[in-house]
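Hi Q.,

Before the meeting this afternoon, I wanted you to have the coenzyme A prediction in hand. No need to reply - just skim if you have a minute. The sequence and ligand are here:
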Amino acid sequence: MTAALKAGRGLELRPLHLRDAKALFPLVEANRERLGRWLPWVDANHSVLDTRAFIVRVRAHARAGIGQSFGLWWKGTLVGTAGFVWIDAANHSAAIGYWLAREAEGHGLMTAAVTALLRHGFRSLKLNRIEIRAGVRNRRSRAIPERLGFRHEGTLRQAERLGGRFVDHAVYGMLAEEWRRR
Ligand SMILES: CC(C)(COP(=O)(O)OP(=O)(O)OC[C@H]1O[C@@H](n2cnc3c(N)ncnc32)[C@H](O)[C@@H]1OP(=O)(O)O)[C@@H](O)C(=O)NCCC(=O)NCCS
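Predicted structure with the ligand bound:
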């Protein structure tokens, strides 16, 4: 299992552990409405048991090398998650996903977490390409890759079914060579 990643300013990315379910589920519950606007899995997460099942799944993905999910701990409190939602080892490619609790928004925490994931992905995992997909109307999410110098590569039309409608995704990519010379 990967070690924790330090992101500065009291923020640490720790690989999700089963014992985190007790802190993670109430966070999902308290943020259900705003998270559900953009994250389809929220609708299927209704108990600590569901959260445990999610953690079991992401830990299996980490062992198989096809994903890596971290709890975001800010000054010792769990405030969200971030990580590689998939890793395509054959193509040295991965996608980052994330969410934060309302009270942790607006402090630059996710920008710092994604910065740490880029360093980990390009240096330790030897990735060549890292992407972020966000709903075209998800302004706060899109601001993160834009702030970090990702290239906006285009739009995937009706890429995701969310709340009974199809939403377009903005796709952002960063290549290892771009990250090295940033
Ligand atoms: C997407 C999401 C993680 C963004 O959170 P966020 O707090 O806006 O992002 P950051 O942590 O990078 O913080 C940026 C904000 O902190 C401010 N900030 C303060 N210090 C900062 C710093 N040192 N560096 C960068 N930003 C800083 C920025 O100005 C910005 O605030 P503003 O938008 O009011 O100007 C959050 O809105 C969320 O969880 N949304 C719901 C789930 C979701 O949409 N997930 C993504 C699906 S693709």
